[in-house]
């Protein structure tokens, strides 16, 4: 959001007179406000609706149609009588663990690919690029079958285990994020490493004390993207987690909506609002990083 | 050439020849195993040692469990991983691998292996009725068809328990006391026998009447094998006091590889589909996995039951993915252009516009499924004043709704990346266009648009691939429905290929499990995505060259 200075170059009117009439203002800027308001309404109305539904007294789908007609926190209080908070804890735990693992493993791999030259480096990078194209979820049948076999040996890595789910998510860590990080690592001048080496630092010291500090922005981006992706992941969680207490929010809320949609709408709305908060907060506060990360992948040229 | 030189530099980096750094910096990099051993035992080395000890302990535990469970593949894989890990972290020549290995292990186990496994399952008939190996199928058939042996003696029986595990203690007709459970066949033990019945036995606790009643179901289900040979039958009981020997009505002849039904005399021989088949074509209900070649693939595309719906699903998948990318990109690009001018409140607009993107991916479709509900939804009741538009239940409207909901979900992402790309456009090119006298529209069409496309095309391709497999949206919004009326398979008008895989695999219990066919379909998706990505990336490169 910083490099806005380029835009006026195109838009500045070429006429030397600076007179700004209302019509001129509208054709330059005003219509942009109209578009803005229109689409903000479009983007925000479902969110306003779910907020209103979550505080509606009746808790049914029909009763939620009058926006902010009534106010009661009963829906939120009722969540405590359900498994909701276990789901919430599961989701947060799984997302954070996956995110930490992803950052540690992805950054280490990106460092190796960026700083060392070894046989198989080119092949490795190409393989990662290709693997990036195949979402892990495509193989969910095989993952399900694999965990059946693994579970017979190590129950903690079998079906219905949260640890196993984290491991499965980590399997996708290298493929998705290493490239993003690799590009960023390459922008850190090698001279820094060399200076450190001359000063007697080992490769591990260079990595932990110099490089990692300089690439913090991309680490934040990858951690965030990973948390957001894991928090919202549905297929694999649904296939692997079987008992209700182990479910994540995605699986749990789906089961509410699919089974008792109309009567329990208020409960769902309250649950949806609460599950949105962590991601929304992360997003709004760290928007700058996220936008930077997304475009870092795109504008590499 | 440069690679060669670089290799040398990398190996020179082995820390043996580097002087030891001061203690203060060493302490800061606790907690990772990348430190190389060099005869110095600093905090880093100790941390590595500790981590490797944990890894090795876990590895040995897995090896041991795999040995007990007789899972030879897991045993072998774990052995290889353990050996590689120890070699990598205790050798000086493997510096790059020290950094890549942890990720690599997860990548291999949970991604590369599963892709390979999908390929293997696709060529088998793995699924309901073909769940395991032939040996398991034979054992299951023998157990399922057990009947009480006519005229066999009544055996005085006592129900015993070892922890949670139930067992039977039985006095044989010749007077020997034996005990066994579901896993271990009956074997002779030292036991106290009173009035022809066992009252106490070493290592087992005798259950009293009340405890037996509490676990009645388990007791009547329990079968204790008479010996290691599954054909020899088992002891079962109905009343927890008398046991009878049950023997299977099927006899498996290992040499001839046939099953014979002793009551009817029918002989079943194994067929190509992994089942025992009699001369009249009837089969036994438990089969095993066999390779079926390309059967799963041909079933999907030529079997009349499947091919009709499958073709519709494939077409809709492409339409959906393409329409999703196109609509979201156009709207996102439009908004990004609109807000690329300094104006009051721009930051607020931008923040509010990306709100849908900040909503977790599962909340949005669920929320919209309520909004679009036919009888009670907000859209019908409030926005359309009580209309009853079947948004999610009419084949065409459901498709439209899905694209509409995905537009809401997806445009903020495109808005973000287009904003980023617009901001990084080179100023000189834009100025040059202005100097050459290009108008706003002309600049947009000939300069901005091509540059924008170059930088966003890779993301558009990934967006296409993502939507191609947008399981959560479809599954949560319509569940693939409305169902095809004429089809025998549980598929519907809005099913895309990935939800079709889910239905066919039968993991939700609505259809018989068919892992083979589901995997074959996954492979088809793999191939489609690979082809599209390859073509698209090639096109992108040529685009870049033009510029």
From TrEMBL, chain A:
Residues annotated as transmembrane:
29-51, 87-113, 125-151, 163-185, 206-231, 265-286
What name is this protein filed under? Sugar ABC transporter permease
State the annotated membrane topology for this chain. Multi-pass membrane protein
**Domain ABC transmembrane type-1 per the UniProt entry, residue ranges:** 88-286
Family, as annotated = Belongs to the binding-protein-dependent transport system permease family. MalFG subfamily.
The answer to keyword Disulfide bond applying to this record is no
Q: What are the entry keywords?
A: Cell membrane, Membrane, Sugar transport, Transmembrane, Transmembrane helix, Transport
Q: Which organism is it from?
A: Isoptericola haloaureus
Return any one Pfam family short name: BPD_transp_1
SUPFAM superfamilies cross-referenced by the UniProt entry: MetI-like
Q: Where does the UniProt annotation locate this protein? A: Cell membrane
Question: Main subcellular localization, coarse class?
Answer: membrane
